[in-house]
């Protein structure tokens, strides 16, 4: 995917029509950062603080990257009790830090910079009371879920048997979640920034998004775990499993389109019926065989000698999954998957974004 500065350049192009290179963006950020630091240092020195507090505040700023400094409103001169502010997000555990060209979808939720002096204690207000009949479910806006369907679990895996024991390796995995109202809502990505990663043919991402509903569209950035040491024998099984819950007893159609360089290369369509479980309708696609194209792709990817080579290939590889009502053709969920190779010892990781068109 695009680096941070490339993403900013694309945004400038979309908003103003002006063209800026990645180096121009980087240079401008550094100039702004130096200016902000000078202003902030002057404001800290002017405050009635002890030397220890001043040194601590200045050291905190010294540890920030240029992008964090520019995006932080705390760098402006403020009153003696500046509130906490949010910065450019930090990388996920095991992923590249700010010193590298960060991928735009590699950031988890924002972190908070400590203020120069302690801030007054504040309490998070309770959400306003809403009648039970119209209250939004807690998982809405916090998980991959539209008004009618929610993704509960998703995995792609390799399974093999040896000595009567079954070994399973997860390439990617989205596990069950139980969010609360205090959890943050999903971050947003402009859907126009990824149109060129997916097919523009009939039924492509752009056409589907324009048709809506917009609350059904999501982007998932996967850090895939390709470090499997499982020996593949004749009985090796490559599969995909997914599970959904819905509000209606319907039949769903699940279309999975694999794209390379923005062109669709293969599509798999599956049908699943609703089953009542625990007072809700559940749709489960269990151990669906992975297509031949994907198996060969994984084999070739794993044989590349360096991870940066794998990521270079994955930059132009995407998957679009569309879940729809088979009878009405209404889009219930549309998930765009993009990939990198995981460098974490914790294996496969992911981050979810809501797709918007601001």
Q: How would you summarize what this structure contains?
A:
It contains seven helices and twelve strands. The protein has helices at residues 4-16, 22-46, 51-62, 66-71, 205-211, 292-302, 307-314; strands spanning 149-162, 165-174, 187-190, 217-224, 237-246, 251-260, 263-273, 275-277, 280-289, 317-325, 331-341, 349-356.
Question: How would you sum up this structure, described in words?
Answer:
The protein has 358 residues and is α+β, with helices and mostly antiparallel strands. The chain has seven helices and twelve strands. It has helices spanning 4-16, 22-46, 51-62, 66-71, 205-211, 292-302, 307-314, and strands at residues 149-162, 165-174, 187-190, 217-224, 237-246, 251-260, 263-273, 275-277, 280-289, 317-325, 331-341, 349-356. A seven-stranded mixed beta sheet has the order 3-12-4-11-10-6-7, covered by helices on one side. Strands 2-1-5-9-8 form a five-stranded antiparallel beta sheet, with no helix packed on it. Strand 8 (275-277) and strand 9 form a beta hairpin. Helix 1 (4-16) packs across helix 2 and helix 2 runs antiparallel to helix 3 (51-62). It is globular. The two termini are 20 Å apart. Mean pLDDT is 81; it is low at 76-91, 97-115 and 129-133.
Strand content: 25-35%
How many E strands?
12
Sheet of most strands: 7 strands, mixed
Number of helices: 7
């Amino acid at each position: 995917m695009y680096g941070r500065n490339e993403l900013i350049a694309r945004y400038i192009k979309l908003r103003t029509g002006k063209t800026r290179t990645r180096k121009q963006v980087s240079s401008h950020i550094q100039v702004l950062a130096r200016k902000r630091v000078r202003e902030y240092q002057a404001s800290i020195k002017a405050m009635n603080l002890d030397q220890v507090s001043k040194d601590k505040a200045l050291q905190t700023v010294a540890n920030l990257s240029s992008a964090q400094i520019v995006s932080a409103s705390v760098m402006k001169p403020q009153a003696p009790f500046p509130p906490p502010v949010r910065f450019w997000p930090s990388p996920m555990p095991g992923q590249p830090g700010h010193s590298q060209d960060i991928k735009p979808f590699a950031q988890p939720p924002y972190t908070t910079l400590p203020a120069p002096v302690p801030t007054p204690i504040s309490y998070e207000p309770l959400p306003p009371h809403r009648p039970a009949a119209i209250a939004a479910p807690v998982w809405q806006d916090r998980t991959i879920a539209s008004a009618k369907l929610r993704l509960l679990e998703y995995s792609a895996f390799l399974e093999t048997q040896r000595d009567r024991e079954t070994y399973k390796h997860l390439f990617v995995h989205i596990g069950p979640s139980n969010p609360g109202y205090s959890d943050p809502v999903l971050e947003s990505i402009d859907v126009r920034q990824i149109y060129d990663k997916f097919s523009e043919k009939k039924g492509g991402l752009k056409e589907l998004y324009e048709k809506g509903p917009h609350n059904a569209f999501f982007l998932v950035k996967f850090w895939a775990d390709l470090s499997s040491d499982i020996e593949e024998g004749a009985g090796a099984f490559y599969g995909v499993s997914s599970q959904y819950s819905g509000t209606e007893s319907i039949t769903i159609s699940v279309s999975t389109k694999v794209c390379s360089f923005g062109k669709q290369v293969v599509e798999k369509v599956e049908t699943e019926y609703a089953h009542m479980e625990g007072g809700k309708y559940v749709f489960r696609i269990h151990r669906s065989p992975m297509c031949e194209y994907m198996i060969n792709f994984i084999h070739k990817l794993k044989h590349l000698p360096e991870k940066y080579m794998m990521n270079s290939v994955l930059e132009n590889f995407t998957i679009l999954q569309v879940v729809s009502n088979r009878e009405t053709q209404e889009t219930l969920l549309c998930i765009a998957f993009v990939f990198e190779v995981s460098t974490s010892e914790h294996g496969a990781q992911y981050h979810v974004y809501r797709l918007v068109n601001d």
